[in-house]
Specification:
Length: 81
């Protein structure tokens, strides 16, 4: 049986960010709060096989030669303070 929880005195900034995240993920505010709590309190532990499979899926989705070495160097420089 699921429990009920009421949150009070949520800072405005956190409330707004939760609303934005819920909208971005196509969830209700309640579902977004539950997802955030699950992620914070029950992180998924991936084994080596899952990490490798995820890396292979990401690699397969990359376009070869999408960036030149110069473009990468410029992006790194722009990211530095």
């Amino acid at each position: 049986m699921a429990a009920n929880l009421t949150l009070k005195n949520i800072p405005d900034e956190i409330y707004e960010r939760l609303k934005e995240a819920a909208q971005a993920h196509h969830r209700s505010l309640n579902s977004e709060v539950i997802a955030c709590l699950e992620q914070a309190l029950m992180p998924v532990r991936l084994g080596p096989e899952e990490h490798l499979a995820r890396a292979r899926r990401i690699h397969a989705g990359l376009t070869s030669g999408a960036f030149t070495a110069d473009e990468i160097a410029q992006a790194i420089e722009r990211g530095r303070p």
